[in-house]
Amino acid sequence: MAATYPSLLAAGITDEGENLPFELYAGEAEIVTSQFTSAEDIDQFEIVVCSSAGLISVWNGTDFPSGGAATLVPLPMGIAAQAIANGEMGPVFVGGSFNHEVLAWPGGVSTLAARKAAFVGTNIVIAKNLGGSSGATMTLP
Hints:
This protein has one helix at about 110-120, and strands at about 30-40, 45-50, 55-60, 80, 90-100, 125. The chain is mostly beta strands.
């Protein structure tokens, strides 16, 4: 017998709590993903660099891992869309406008200006989310 997907419908009077969305995006831009093989374990939303061999590694913010004989591009080129295990292929954002406050930045890259500068020349825009989840509510007529 095939597994069944559980019902997600609310029933009766149930307090489901607040729905505060995760604010990953911070503006309008085409969201583009690609797939890369990882040279190490990478957590979701970590900033990555890519070797000339096409393997990605976590950017440490100051210098760039050698990746063996391959030379890494000297700037971050993407954001891990999901956690990627060492040696596995996974999705990487290579375009879009992202909220700098929710990404996993390396130590020392703590200002918005430094975070923006890390992606200069790429299709990734780093920005501050100007709206956010303020807790404001809308009353319908």
